[in-house]
Amino acid sequence: MPMSRLKRVVAAIRAYAAHPDPRAAIASTVALVIVSNQPFYPLYLHWAVSPVVTPSYVTFLSTPLFAAVPAAMRRSTRFGRSLLLVAGIGNTLLCRVAFGTGSGVEVFLFPCLMLALMLFRRPERAFALSFAVLVFVTYLLPPALLGTPLYLYEPGEYAALQRLNLLSALSLTALIGWLFAGRLDTISRADETTGTS
């Protein structure tokens, strides 16, 4: 792809994620980073864990939801922020079903919890609390309720899968913290000057 075309694509993606509300812009950025990484998850799995990557295909069910977050922000920032959390928590639950509890995939609930507590303003505490409770309920679902995984990996492969998922979840959490740290001033001003929508 020529450099000028690549620059146009990057500019279009940035324009799609842009929003005057800093929380909405952060949520859109996080959603699009997840979309850009999802196609590589089966490759990471193949490289670090096992050539059997079919359970990872369930992650693609959430791709349209993550991709729609910036568009949803234009309708309602509250709806867009909620959509990001529904996609994240739902994707984690699907992966728990597909990979089993030995995979450690539930670590992706930590960035979901962080987003639940940081994406909503003070008057929206009920939304923050509701999504936080949903994160805990998802984590506490008993393994027997989730059924049999799509594939049973060897113990050493599960250990490698846990490391892969932990590294990915930590990277996503660090990105979220970095994005919020870079927008603290604008978030504070936005809270003072805008209502909720």
Written account of the structure:
- With 197 residues, the chain is mainly α.
- It has one domain (3-193).
- 73% of the residues lie in helices and 0% in strands.
- Helix 2 (22-37) packs parallel to helix 5 and helix 6 (109-118) runs antiparallel to helix 7.
- The radius of gyration is 18 Å and the shape is globular.
Please give a quick description of this structure.
It contains 10 helices and no strands. With 197 residues, the protein is mainly alpha-helical. The chain has one domain (3-193).
Question: What labels describe this entry?
Answer:
197 residues, mainly alpha, 73% helix, 0% strand, globular
The coarse overall form would be globular
Class by alpha and beta content: mainly alpha
Beta-strand proportion: under 5%
Alpha-carbon Rg, integer: 18 Å
Give the helices and strands, then pairings:
Blueprint: H1 3-17, H2 22-37, H3 41-48, H4 63-75, H5 77-99, H6 109-118, H7 125-140, H8 143-146, H9 155-182, H10 184-193
